[in-house]
Specification:
Length: 338
């Protein structure tokens, strides 16, 4: 038997963006614990905007488990928040709103800034660095700095060790801006992985005295904002698809445009301006390889006869992948399949 450090992680009740919370309990297991072996736990919901002080217990229900190589016998336990009965999802539990997602695949491209002393890493104390251009996928100290690369590489290794399905990383268009991509079969799996990757990044940055800035437009002016493009495909889109189905899908996305924007992250009007590879927030468009459209159709989609995945470019870096996946699947479910 060994004592394992179980870090129970959940999303609090803050709006419009929930914060990650976590606390540790120690339990003995013969080997690395399986999900079924992890008990429900509780927390004080009055401290997280999830309950009143009088009756403040909320329940943590483990839904995914990851090795945590930063700690001896470390375990990250992603949880859903439940009401005290243990079976009813708490109103802040958006993971529970995801429709049956068998066969749905999601790829999230999480962009973010690394910040210190109130500005992105690599920004001078006064004024601005050289304009955008060389930073995207850049190399060299003047383009990406030193600490940033170290953090990004360490984060990648920690995520891979945790079994998170990272697909890649790159330096982004603005100085101090980065991206990682996570792909998951099953929308809950993909969204769990994004939240746990965010958790690992936030915690890793503590020791560098660096913060992760997820806001979608932290620097005004000619500096890119941060998105979280959501690439998605259902079983039907991959195996049957077709032009008619695609056009029906796009009509449904057009119809539900406002409901999508409502869960695609706060302050998105600052980012979706029609500039910097975005469509403006009040328009819905789609186009082949069009980075200025709301939805970009990859070449592979057309080449294979309207089959495959689509990229919704509107979700932003602060968006909740549970709510984003939930909304996309809801809209997809309104489109009849013959
Ligand atoms: P870009 O920056 O050009 O938009 P990326 O490589 O950063 O491209 O992101 C593409 C994303 O598409 C990846 O996250 C990948 O996992 C995802 N993806 C690829 N194929 C599928 C698929 N069939 N269903 C859902 N997502 C997919
Ligand atoms: Mn990308
Ligand atoms: Mn990007
Ligand atoms: Mn993209």
């Amino acid at each position: 038997m060994a004592k394992y450090k179980l870090e129970y992680i959940w999303l609090d009740g803050y709006t419009p963006v929930p914060n990650l919370r976590g606390k540790t309990q120690i339990k003995e297991y013969a080997s690395f614990p399986k999900l079924e072996e992890l008990p429900n736990w509780g927390f004080d919901g009055s401290s997280t905007q999830q309950a009143e002080g009088k009756s403040s217990d909320c329940v943590l229900k483990p839904v995914a488990v990851y090795p945590d190589t930063t700690r001896k016998n470390g375990v990250l336990v992603m949880c859903e928040v439940m009401l005290p009965d243990g079976v009813t999802p708490h109103p802040t539990n958006h993971r529970a709103t995801i429709l049956d997602d068998a066969g749905t695949w999601f790829g999230f491209e999480q962009e973010y800034f690394l910040y210190q002393d109130g500005r992105p890493l690599g920004f001078p104390e006064e004024g601005f660095p050289a304009p955008q251009g060389p930073y995207y996928t850049g190399v060299g100290f003047k383009n990406v700095g030193d600490v940033a690369r170290q953090i990004v590489e360490e984060h990648l290794d920690l995520c891979l060790d945790a079994g998170i399905n990272h697909e890649g990383i790159n330096a982004e268009v603005a100085k101090g801006q980065w991206e990682f991509q996570i792909f998951g079969k099953g929308s809950k799996k993909a969204a769990d992985d994004v939240w746990v990757a965010r958790y690992i990044l936030n915690r890793l940055c503590e020791k560098y005295c660096v913060d992760v800035e997820y806001h979608c437009k932290p620097i005004k002016g000619d500096w890119n904002g941060s998105g979280m493009h959501a690439n998605f495909s259902t079983e039907y889109m991959r195996s049957v698809g077709g032009k008619d189905y695609f056009e029906g899908l796009m009509a449904a996305f057009q119809k539900h445009m406002d409901e999508h924007i409502a869960v695609y992250g706060p302050d998105n009007h600052l980012r979706l301006t029609g500039l910097h590879e975005t469509q403006s927030i009040d328009k819905f468009t789609y186009g082949l390889a069009d980075r200025g459209a709301s939805i970009r159709i990859p070449h592979s989609f057309i080449n294979s006869g309207y089959k495959g995945y689509l990229e919704d470019r509107r979700p932003n870096s602060q968006g909740d992948p549970y709510q984003i996946a939930s909304r996309i699947l809801k809209t997809v479910s309104t489109v009849p399949t013959p």
